[in-house]
């Protein structure tokens, strides 16, 4: 345990979760607990700074969608006297820990990948989703509509997304807004292993989330002097709008929109690049598995002796 973590525990702050729950929401090269605390504090500042200037937490219901073990919620406990704090996550162990250590005041429930949230329509005034839509590939429109359903009229949504900074650092090429829509990488990775990485561009979010939400603000990472973006998530603030949209309405590709075509071409190009990298690595893994199976078999020892004899013969 680091000195910083010991000081944190001695300060009367909420307890820290087990290490496996802390690193589940993001591994860092530094001290995992110090970075866990720092990221939660940073996300609190994002929420407070992006909310409208006339926003108040008094009497409001707040949901942290994908709360994990409370990385962000722990930094809002000072508001629990005036606001209802809720958290949900698909990871049962994380929710169990929140129930034992942060509840009360936090109210929490386990959510399901495919099912609606077990709350009434219009239950929340504010939902934030940090590193959630960055991993939802197939049913993104259903989840946008679900956010619309659980928010009260005029309710607010804050969501992080992978924009230019993470795109350039991860994919190794300049970010071209007009050629990126919704780009999915590692679509085969299960959610319990981090899930796919899903990138978005601002124009695509305004077009495809627009029927459900009025996007009030988009905030990207700082831009360097050379025009590239620093590595970091982007964030949007959106207000629920009526009427309730349909999945088809959100997913519909606008006819004649050249950026839609360019974005699909980028998806195809990146998928081909991914497949090109998978085949050699998959073949290498298959060779290793075959060799291990051979060595464990009845012919393993004779095969090794034959290989050594052949090597000595070549040397002679």
Task: Map the helices and strands.
Layout: H1 3-10, H2 19-24, H3 32-50, E1 61-65, E2 84-89, H4 92-101, E3 107-110, E4 124-129, H5 140-150, E5 151-161, H6 164-171, E6 182-185, E7 197-200, H7 202-208, E8 213-219, E9 234-240, H8 247-251, H9 258-296, H10 300-315
Parallel strand pairs: 1-2, 1-4, 2-3, 4-5
Antiparallel strand pairs: 5-9, 6-7, 8-9
Helix pairs in contact: 9-10
Explained architecture:
- The protein is α/β, with parallel strands linked by helices and 316 residues long.
- The protein contains 10 helices and 9 strands.
- Mean pLDDT is 88; it is low at 1-7.
- It has 2 domains: 3-275, Vaccinia Virus protein VP39 (Rossmann fold); 287-315, no CATH class.
Structure at a glance:
The protein is of the alpha/beta class and 316 residues long. The chain contains 10 helices and 9 strands.
Total tally of structural domains:
2
Q: What's the name of the CATH homologous superfamily of the largest domain?
A: Vaccinia Virus protein VP39
Query: Could you say what the CATH architecture of the largest domain is?
Result: 3-Layer(aba) Sandwich
Q: Number of DSSP strands?
A: 9
According to CATH, what is the class of the largest domain? Alpha Beta
What is the 3D form?
A: globular
Low-confidence runs of at least 5 consecutive residues: 1-7
Counted by DSSP, the helix tally is 10
- Biggest sheet layout: 7 strands, mixed
CA distance, first residue to last residue: 57 Å
Report the mean per-residue pLDDT as an integer: 88
Share in β-strands: 15-25%
CATH topology label of the largest domain? Rossmann fold
The H-and-E topology, N to C, reads as: HHHEEHEEHEHEEHEEHHH
